[in-house]
Structures are given as structure tokens and as C-alpha cells.
Amino acid sequence: MGKTDNFGWYEGSVVIELSSLLGLKICRYTAHNSVKFGAPRDTDFPQLRQPLALEVWRSLVKSIDDGSKITILTNGPLTNLANILLSESNASSIIQVINSEVFILGGHINYKKNQEKGNVINVPSNKYAELNMFLDTLAAKTVFESSLDMTLIPLHAQRKVYALPKIIKTLQAKNMTHEAVFTRRLLTRLHHLHQRHHLYRHVDMFAGEILGAVILAGDRKLLNSTFDIKHLKVYTKGQLSRDGEVIFDTKKKKEFKVLQGFNHVSCYNIFSNGLLRQKQSAVIGSFGEQKRRWSSPAA
Questions:
Q1: Gyration radius (Cα) of the chain, Å
Q2: Residue 244 and residue 133: Cα distance in Å, rounded?
């Protein structure tokens, strides 16, 4: 394992920790035609094949009604979205026709007066890029230069909610839903890893994904969120110390809505209230509960 693979190892170990917490086995997928993807032979277990993102997208487009709205939230590198745009000449127009809205969780805008560093933890020489942009800069460039209407939730905004204990504290009530209990245990484990192990010192970055979900589905008026319009592009010149930086586009080719401010306390409350709402809770909270119901005599 090379030096640049440390983050992948770190993410994998988080999955193992959380699977252990939940009593789950690690699920592995395989490509349907493994030889096509570089393996020595085709798989003997095609039933384990995980659908590609492009296949999921095409299935979704076929199944929706005319005039339906699809909202996309990305919380990782923009590889899948770029592949959708590149796979078909009309992919971008399809997204526009169905009135799509795209939220991108990532990017770090390096203002001249802003000396706040990025989070590319496995390449110390890259000081101002954000990890999702850095991990696939060409995909980011493809998406940024597309005709999509995009809202950017940048790193400096995400860092305002890097407070796992405060989020956990809001997930307390007398009648907890299964979803709230699961989320509290999950975040508590992440917080313990963050506090006790040096390798997990950056695990609080996952709290940024909570902000993305709240911006997407929460009450923006209650959140008191504000946005600026900025012309941006991604630095992609093959320079490891700079690739992935989100910089201002002096030619002003592409506009982005960029999240600037919001009430972080309201963010925590919107998130927890959604999970604690009994009417939105799943009827069955776990396989164990379902098994108990199967074993009980009918009323």
C-alpha cells in the first residue's frame, strides 16, 4: 500500500468498525464480467454484481413520470455524475428536461484573504484543495463545465457543523425512533474513534454530509441559509500541489450558487427533528423485530 492509499485504508477501517457495531458482515460485490475489468476470469457469482451508477441513472430516467423533478446530492468525488454526462450526448439535456437540481458537497474556495487550508490529508503539499475535488479532478472539471444548475456546499461551510457531540446531544428523546437510535450510535462511535485514535482525527468531516442532507431536504427558511453567486472553475493542470483547487473564473463562463452562511444550531435541530418524527419512522426497525413478529401468534 502506497502513501497515497492511507485514506482508502482509513475509510475501509471505518466501515469495519461500524459493521462490527451493527453486527453486520462485510458485503462484497463483484463485476458481472470480471475479465472485462481486468480480473483473471469471469465471476462465478453474477448475482452479487452491484449495479453501476450509470445503470441506476438510466433505470431512474425510464421509470419517472413526465415533469418529475430529480434532485441530486453528491457527497464524494464527481466521477459518477461525470460519467453520466459523458456517456450520452443528451445526458445533460435529459437532466435539464426533468428539471434537475444538483447540490455538490465539496470544493474549497481559496479566497485571497482566506488562509484556511483544505483537507487533502494524504498529500500534504496540496494545501488548498478539498478531497472530493482532488480525488477526481477531471470529473470535477467535466461537471463544472457542464450546463447543470449547481449549488456548491464548500468545505468552509461544512466545517461549521464539525461538532459531533452537539449533534449527538440533539438525538435524545423519551420515544426514540429506530432511525434516531441508529444515528446516535453511529455518530457516537465516530466521535469515540475521533477522540481516541490518531488515524481517525479527520473523521468529523463526515458531519459535513449532514449539512448536505439538511440543505437538500430541510426548511431553508428555518435554517436561515444564504447564498452568493460566483463564477468558478477547478484547477486541473497535473500539478499535485494544486490540482482540485476551486478558483475564480475570470472569464465568468459558469455561475454557481455557493452556500455562505446558515444557522448551525438550526441545522442540528432540523436533522434531529426529522429523525425523531414518529410518523416518518419505518414500521419495522430491524430484522430482529421482524423475526419476533413472525414468531408471535396472530392477534
A1: 21
A2: 5
CA pseudo-torsion sign 29, 275, 270, 171? negative
Cell of 279: 410518523
8 strand-pairing partners: none
pLDDT of 63 reads: 83
CA distances, 273 to each of 116, 183, 207, 219 (Å) = 32, 12, 16, 11
Q: What is the pTM of this model?
A: 0.79
C-alpha 260/C-alpha 266 separation (Å) is: 15
Are the beta carbons of 200 and 193 closer than 8 angstroms? Answer: yes
- Cα–Cα distance measured from residue 199 to residue 51, given in angstroms and rounded to the nearest whole number: 32
Residue 195 CA to residue 201 CA, distance in Å, equals 7
Cβ neighbour number for residue 218 with a 10 Å cutoff: 20
Question: Cell numbers at residue 192, please?
Answer: 469515540
Q: How far is CA 142 from CA 51, 74, 218, in A?
A: 23, 14, 29
Query: What phi-psi label fits residue 15: left (phi over 0), alpha (psi between -120 and 50 degrees) or beta?
Result: alpha
| 165: Cα separation from own chain's centroid | 21
Write out pLDDT tens, residues 9-63: 444 555 555 555 555 555 555 666 667 766 667 767 666 667 778 888 888 878 8
Comparing C-alpha atoms, which of 146, 167, 182 is closest to residue 289?
182
C-alpha 10/C-alpha 13 separation (Å) is: 5
Give the helix ranges, DSSP H, for the chain: 6-22, 53-63, 79-87, 91-97, 131-135, 137-144, 155-158, 164-170, 178-196, 207-217, 220-223, 264-276, 287-295
237 contacts 48 by C-beta, under 8 angstroms: no
